[in-house]
Design goal:
The protein contains eight helices and 21 strands. 21% of the residues lie in helices and 28% in strands. The protein is globular and about 60 Å long. The model has no long low-confidence stretch (mean pLDDT 95). The N and C termini lie far apart (49 Å). It has 347 residues and is of the alpha+beta class. It has helices at 32-35, 90-99, 117-120, 203-217, 238-247, 265-271, 300-318, 337-340, and strands at 2-8, 20-27, 44-46, 53-55, 62-66, 71-75, 79-85, 124-125, 128-129, 134-141, 146-151, 172-182, 225-229, 235-236, 253-255, 261-263, 278-279, 282-284, 291-294, 327-330, 333-335. Strand 10 (134-141) and strand 11 (146-151) form a beta hairpin. The strands form six sheets. Strands 6-7-12-10-11 form a five-stranded antiparallel beta sheet, with no helix packed on it. Strands 1-2-5-3 form a four-stranded mixed beta sheet, with no helix packed on it. It has a four-stranded antiparallel beta sheet with strand order 13-19-18-17, with helices on one face. It binds NADP nicotinamide-adenine-dinucleotide phosphate (NAP).
Length: 347
């Protein structure tokens, strides 16, 4: 295990915020886990590639940075079983699978972040979720100091959520995921941009289309600092949708299996007039309003202030409360967005 003191995290978060951590534990081998000190009484944060994290203070907590590597592929009669260490890069895994003619992840191309982060928020795009292929997650338990195996069902996956954000939050570290891909493959072309392809595409063609759609709309964090979608798409009930449709007949809405309705958060922000809005070196992206970008700020609080403003404007216009997908981290560890807000009695 490598240990570094007083580390600037600027290159470890895609918002490019300078925050100093007193200690970073870099875990390269599974045996490093046994050497981790007991951190239960201290604030700490487990950091993947930092593509969904906002450091909101100039100081950060103790950081644990798993960097386990390795991919193992086993061919079965009707499927491929792919076991991947949590420190692998997600998009490289998608590429590798396509190269090996293992299909299923193509809609999830170009999602930033590590493999270990994928189960935590059950990443998803273009109608496909991580949980669709996940068989098991291996997870090191801080209490028993042993690696446990959680089945797909035990991971409690739901929309951008899992047990790792809930009951097992900060109680251990994901070391590996086990994925299964049936050899019988059918493209998932349910989303706009994919459903108007003129040919029946190969998995590689789907992946290339997803890459071109994402690249056209989403800012590259290496060029313009951001953490992808900042807010989750809100889920509302049927009555609320009926009210909204009276005023906004074109509101994009997608019915869920439980009868509730998902609304496109980016559309709400755009309709609130905030696409391209800038303030204090941060802003709402000009092509995709769901993405908040950092042009020149060194202070994560500026992004929090912007997010609060966006949240307020959408609430005033639509009576819908957006909640962030991005995780907020202060010197005291992860914080809820609400706890960071400046209270405004007028709203
Ligand atoms: P879009 O086509 O402008 O649609 C806006 C939202 O509507 C999407 O977020 C999507 O929700 C939902 N949606 C669209 N078509 C749908 C359908 N046929 N069935 C159900 N829901 C539908 O979206 P976009 O911004 O270009 O993004 C396209 C995909 O990339 C989305 O799946 C989005 O989640 C994903 N993406 C993820 C990130 C990230 O950082 N996590 C960033 C950008 C885009 P869902 O998000 O629930 O799919």
């Amino acid at each position: 295990m490598e240990l570094s003191k007083e580390v600037s995290l600027q290159s470890y978060n895609s918002f490019n915020i300078t925050a100093i951590s007193p200690t970073v534990y870099f875990l390269n081998e599974l045996t490093d886990l046994e050497q981790l000190p007991d951190l239960t009484s201290k604030p700490f944060y487990i950091l993947g590639e930092g593509s969904n994290t906002l450091f909101v203070d100039h100081l950060a907590p103790i950081i644990i940075k798993p960097n386990f590597k390795g991919v193992d592929i086993v061919e079965k009669n009707e499927s491929y079983i792919v076991t991947v260490a949590s420190g692998e890069n997600w998009h490289e895994l998608v590429n590798l699978c396509i190269e090996q003619e293992i299909y299923g992840l193509e809609n999830l191309a170009l999602i930033p972040g590590s493999v270990g982060a994928a189960p935590v928020q059950n990443i998803g795009a273009y109608g496909v979720d991580f949980s669709d292929f996940c068989v098991e997650v291996k997870w090191f338990d801080f209490i028993n100091k042993r690696v446990k195996t959680l089945s797909n069902q035990e991971c409690n996956f739901s929309y951008r959520n899992s047990i790792f954000k809930q009951a097992l939050y900060n109680k251990g570290i994901i070391t590996e995921v086990v994925l299964s891909f049936p050899k019988k493959w059918q493209a998932n072309l349910s989303y706009a941009g994919l459903n108007d392809l003129e040919i029946v595409p190969s998995a590689r063609q789907v992946m290339e289309k997803v890459i071109s759609l994402r690249s056209a709309k989403l800012p590259d964090p290496n060029v313009l600092a951001n953490a992808g979608s900042f807010f989750k798409n809100p889920i509302i009930n049927e009555n609320k949708l009926t009210d909204l449709l009276r005023v906004y007949p074109n509101i994009p809405s997608y019915r869920q299996q439980n009868g509730q309705v998902k609304i496109a958060a980016g559309w709400l922000i755009e309709q609130a007039g905030l696409k391209g809005y800038c303030s204090n070196g941060v802003g709402v992206h000009q092509n995709q309003a769901l993405v908040l970008v950092n042009y020149s700020s060194n202070d994560g609080k500026e992004i929090v202030n912007l997010a609060q403003y966006v949240q307020q404007q959408v609430l005033i216009k639509f009576d819908i409360l957006l909640s962030p997908e991005v995780r907020m981290v202060s010197a005291q560890g992860e914080k809820s967005f609400d706890s960071l807000l400046v209270k405004d009695e007028r709203v």
